Amino acid sequence: MQKFKVTAEDVKKRLDVFLAEALGVKCSRSSIKAAILNGFVLLNNKNVKASHKLKENDEIVFTPPPPKASTATPEDIPINIIYEDDAIVVVNKPAGMVVHPAIGNYSHTLVNALLFHCKNLSNLGAPLRPGVVHRLDKDVSGVLVLAKTDQAYRELVKQFKERTINRKYIAFVKGVPALKKGKLELPIGRSRRDRKKMAVTLTGKNAKQAVTYYEVVKQYKGYSELIINLGTGRTHQIRVHTSYIGHPIIGDTHYGGPKSKRLMLHAVSLGFKHPIKGNDLYFEVPLPEEFLISVDII
Q1: d(CA 61, CA 171)
Q2: Pick from 14, 38, 62: which residue ends a domain?
Q3: Contact criterion met (CB below 8 Å) for 69 and 103
Q4: I want to staple 153 with a disulfide (CB 3.0 to 4.6 A). Which of 72, 74, 147, 218 is the partner?
Q5: In the chain, how many domains are there?
């Protein structure tokens, strides 16, 4: 950890420029920006943008990110494979497992497990994301497809880009939405207040279109069960949209949800065309045991 105090000569400098000069050859400008984005740099104990202009006596704390692994390595970790052929592998990811290696999680990920069990994944996305065409958050469980060949990878990426893939989720949220069925079309971007979060961003260059369809299927005391379909696949999309309308997901304290043993969001089904054969495929996985709780229905 390194600490810096801004003097008069550095007033109005950008944060990333100041750190690039202060750290010299130790870090590149791009790595500094990545460190700021991922919370390894604090200005007066707060997360700010790389472009933030400094003031005299500002205090900066820089924590060097852990060294980056060069490749994902196979690990003998149990994983629930529900379908596999020469081109693709479909799994039921448990909550608490990261999809691929990244800062802070270079081992014990889904990719590490599949490299052991499947022996090969597509080279596209390598070295740390081989075969990964879409992701689920660490604390989200459910169905996920990965590509084993480069041809399958390209075709699946195309289907996701063209939004022809059907993804359905089950979410338990706080309260009951006034409209029992609806479409949330709210752009999402990096939060200006907390760079570790996403947020509904109505203005700004980083805002991207995001569309979520929901339907209330059950009402309970204090919360409800929703079926959710994605029109787009933005980072934290379901979590951000449900929080924005005042119904955060149970267990999602990151976005204002009440505490629970786990995040109550599950990717229940996935439908797409086989990337090589072209036939329609549909996979559905049951709700985890922790969802099947005894409650009093209103």
Answers
A1: 38
A2: 62
A3: no
A4: 147
A5: 3
Q: End of a domain among 62, 80, 114?
A: 62
Run means of pLDDT, 10 residues per run, the chain, 298 residues? 91 92 72 87 92 95 76 94 98 96 85 94 90 96 98 97 96 96 94 83 83 96 95 95 97 94 96 98 94 54
Q: Are 287 and 207 within one domain?
A: yes
With beta carbons less than 8 A apart as the criterion, state whether 94 and 109 touch: no
Eight-class DSSP state of 97: -
137 catalytic per annotation: yes
Residue-level pLDDT at 119: 83
Residue 166 near residue 272, CB atoms below 8 Å:
yes
Q: Quote the crossing angle between the two packed helices 15-23 and 29-37, to the nearest 10°.
A: 120
Q: What is the pLDDT of residue 58?
A: 96
- Tell me which of 137, 139, 194, 296 is the catalytic residue: 137
Together in a domain, 274 and 176: yes
CA 226 to chain CA centroid, Å, is: 20
3-class DSSP assignment, residue 140: coil
Q: Spell 132-164 as b/e; 16+ CB within 10 A means b.
A: bbbbbbebbbbbbbbbbbeebbebbbebbeeee
Range of the domain at 295: 165-298
